[in-house]
Design goal:
245 residues; 49% helix; alpha/beta; two-stranded parallel sheet; globular
């Protein structure tokens, strides 16, 4: 899986290992990915890779299969966020967020699907965001990139079902991650607020606390399993009830 060095990615790795999977943790931050693997009680390995580089991803998948066995599940979790008001967005601001958040999902999914076809099928889970559905202020490009992930999920699910590949997405919200902390700091700096207090308030109303990364991970682990065969092309909210659609 990609984006495995911290946050939701680390939670997904932990949940997959908990479910008995042999996990390949991939991230541009190689040492962070290695730390993720050291923390799990299970078999795994870590590699540093740029998810926007298809040839590098393909090479890592090959090495992961040599070490851990045939690829049966893939998670696209790598993502970046650059906050700014919509009126301040310039043409060059679209590139990195769409390249990592959406284009890399297409690159990695295609490469994973090619391997899965050879073994008779598998499952892909894309980590989108409830931002894809809500449209949060000061995050217009990020919102759009995550909406693209939801759309790609539907397209891949429809096209690859006949190959035995199931594709779904999850849409997290207020998860206890460094990215959420960075959002709180950005808003606090702009509006003269206390970042720590703001972060503490950024919780799902119904849940009354932050969602923990491993809780998202356990949903992802289920979607990777054969038990989720009847769930297809969905963008499932894992945000403590904040998004009702």
């Amino acid at each position: 899986m990609t984006g495995a060095a911290s946050g939701i990615g680390r939670g997904i790795v932990a949940a997959a290992a908990e479910a008995g999977a042999r996990v390949a943790a991939l991230d541009l931050d190689g040492p962070g990915a290695e730390e993720t693997i050291r923390e799990i009680d299970g078999e795994g390995a870590a590699w540093s890779v740029d998810v926007t580089d298809g040839s590098a991803v393909d090479d890592v998948i090959r090495r992961a299969e040599e070490r851990l066995g045939a690829l049966s599940g893939w998670v696209n979790n790598a993502g970046v966020l650059d906050m700014r008001p919509a009126r301040d967005i310039r043409p060059g601001d679209w590139g990195r967020q769409f390249e990592v958040n959406a284009h890399a999902v297409a690159i990695c999914s295609r490469l994973a699907a090619e391997r899965m076809v050879a073994r008779g099928g598998g499952a892909i889970v894309n980590v989108a965001s409830n931002a894809a559905k809500v449209g949060y202020p000061n995050m217009a490009v990020y919102n759009a990139s995550k909406a693209a992930v939801v759309s790609l999920t539907r397209s891949f699910a429809a096209e690859w079902a006949s190959d035995g590949i199931n594709v779904n997405a999850v849409c997290p919200g207020g998860v206890d991650t460094p990215m959420l902390g960075a959002v709180a700091e950005w808003i606090a700096d702009r509006d003269g607020l206390d970042a720590e207090a703001l972060l503490a308030a950024m919780t799902p109303v119904q849940l009354g606390r932050h969602v923990m990364p491993i809780e998202v991970g356990r949903v992802v682990a289920f979607l990777l399993s054969p038990r989720a065969e009847i769930i297809r092309g969905q963008a499932i909210n894992v945000d403590g009830g904040d998004t009702p659609y």
